[in-house]
Design a protein that fits this description.
One of its GO terms (cellular component) is ribosome. With 50 residues, the chain is an all-alpha fold. It has helices spanning 12-16, 30-49. It is built from two helices and no strands.
Length: 50
Amino acid sequence: MGTHGSLTKAGKVRKQTPRLPAKQKKNYPPRLKNRLKYQVRIEKVASARA
């Protein structure tokens, strides 16, 4: 039973791709994050229907 490609080529594409610097993420506390989700899902939909 053979393998799908040789193990010597494993990770070839990932090594060739250029490394990009990490982007800064806004890390909201869970309470604020849930409030923002609620506003997007519920309040904006309700105001659009009214």
